[in-house]
Amino acid sequence: MTTIMTIVAGLGIGYFVYQYLTSNNGGKLNGRIHKSATDKKVAGVCGGIAEWLGVDPTVIRLVWALLICGWGTGLLAYIICAVVLPEE
Fold first, then answer.
1. Dist. CA 46–CA 73, nearest whole Å
2. CA-based nearest residue to 10, from 50, 84, 70, 58
3. Could you report the per-residue pLDDT of 17-74, keeping only the tens digit for each?
4. CA dist., res. 34 & res. 48, Å (int)
5. C-alpha torsion sign, points 55, 73, 14, 62
6. With contact defined as beta carbons under 8 Å apart, do 52 and 29 qualify?
7. ∠ at Cα 51 (22, 29), nearest 5°?
8. What is the rounded CA–CA span in Å between residue 77 and residue 25?
9. Residue 53 contacts residue 20 (beta carbons within 8 Å)
Protein backbone atom coordinates (compact mmCIF):
# COMPACT_ATOMS: atom_id res chain seq x y z
CA MET A 1 0.00 0.00 0.00
CA THR A 2 2.85 2.37 0.79
CA THR A 3 4.37 1.85 -2.65
CA ILE A 4 1.07 2.68 -4.35
CA MET A 5 0.64 5.86 -2.28
CA THR A 6 4.20 6.91 -3.07
CA ILE A 7 3.64 6.43 -6.81
CA VAL A 8 0.33 8.33 -6.72
CA ALA A 9 1.89 11.18 -4.72
CA GLY A 10 4.80 11.34 -7.16
CA LEU A 11 2.43 11.56 -10.11
CA GLY A 12 0.40 14.27 -8.35
CA ILE A 13 3.46 16.32 -7.55
CA GLY A 14 4.80 15.81 -11.08
CA TYR A 15 1.56 17.10 -12.56
CA PHE A 16 1.66 20.05 -10.16
CA VAL A 17 5.20 20.95 -11.25
CA TYR A 18 4.24 20.59 -14.93
CA GLN A 19 1.20 22.83 -14.49
CA TYR A 20 3.26 25.39 -12.57
CA LEU A 21 5.97 25.57 -15.22
CA THR A 22 3.50 25.89 -18.10
CA SER A 23 1.22 28.43 -16.39
CA ASN A 24 0.66 31.96 -17.69
CA ASN A 25 2.93 33.61 -15.16
CA GLY A 26 6.07 32.04 -16.68
CA GLY A 27 7.15 30.29 -13.48
CA LYS A 28 7.14 33.43 -11.31
CA LEU A 29 5.59 33.57 -7.87
CA ASN A 30 2.76 36.02 -7.18
CA GLY A 31 3.69 38.15 -4.16
CA ARG A 32 3.56 36.70 -0.65
CA ILE A 33 2.03 33.41 0.39
CA HIS A 34 -1.30 33.84 2.20
CA LYS A 35 -4.65 32.22 2.98
CA SER A 36 -7.30 32.87 0.35
CA ALA A 37 -10.39 34.82 1.35
CA THR A 38 -12.36 33.90 -1.78
CA ASP A 39 -11.30 30.32 -2.60
CA LYS A 40 -11.61 28.51 0.71
CA LYS A 41 -13.02 25.12 1.63
CA VAL A 42 -11.76 24.88 5.22
CA ALA A 43 -9.31 27.64 6.09
CA GLY A 44 -8.19 28.87 2.66
CA VAL A 45 -4.68 27.42 2.85
CA CYS A 46 -4.81 25.43 -0.41
CA GLY A 47 -6.54 28.29 -2.25
CA GLY A 48 -3.89 30.74 -1.05
CA ILE A 49 -1.02 28.49 -2.06
CA ALA A 50 -2.63 27.98 -5.47
CA GLU A 51 -3.01 31.76 -5.95
CA TRP A 52 0.58 32.28 -4.89
CA LEU A 53 1.89 29.68 -7.35
CA GLY A 54 -0.61 30.57 -10.09
CA VAL A 55 -2.00 27.04 -10.47
CA ASP A 56 -5.36 25.31 -10.12
CA PRO A 57 -6.39 24.92 -6.45
CA THR A 58 -7.79 21.43 -7.12
CA VAL A 59 -4.30 20.08 -7.75
CA ILE A 60 -3.05 21.54 -4.47
CA ARG A 61 -6.03 20.04 -2.63
CA LEU A 62 -5.45 16.60 -4.16
CA VAL A 63 -1.76 16.57 -3.24
CA TRP A 64 -2.62 17.71 0.27
CA ALA A 65 -5.27 14.97 0.59
CA LEU A 66 -2.68 12.39 -0.49
CA LEU A 67 -0.33 13.63 2.20
CA ILE A 68 -3.09 13.37 4.80
CA CYS A 69 -4.36 9.93 3.76
CA GLY A 70 -1.03 8.39 2.87
CA TRP A 71 1.32 9.43 5.61
CA GLY A 72 -0.63 11.71 7.97
CA THR A 73 1.90 14.55 7.74
CA GLY A 74 -0.44 16.76 5.74
CA LEU A 75 -2.86 17.28 8.62
CA LEU A 76 -0.22 18.73 10.92
CA ALA A 77 1.18 20.87 8.09
CA TYR A 78 -2.32 22.17 7.24
CA ILE A 79 -3.02 23.12 10.85
CA ILE A 80 0.31 24.92 11.11
CA CYS A 81 -0.33 26.79 7.83
CA ALA A 82 -3.87 27.71 8.91
CA VAL A 83 -2.49 29.30 12.07
CA VAL A 84 0.68 30.90 10.66
CA LEU A 85 -0.31 32.18 7.20
CA PRO A 86 -1.82 35.68 7.07
CA GLU A 87 -5.22 36.40 5.54
CA GLU A 88 -5.34 37.81 2.01
1. 15
2. 70
3. 776 667 665 556 667 778 888 877 888 888 888 888 777 888 888 888 877 887 677 7
4. 5
5. negative
6. yes
7. 60
8. 27
9. yes
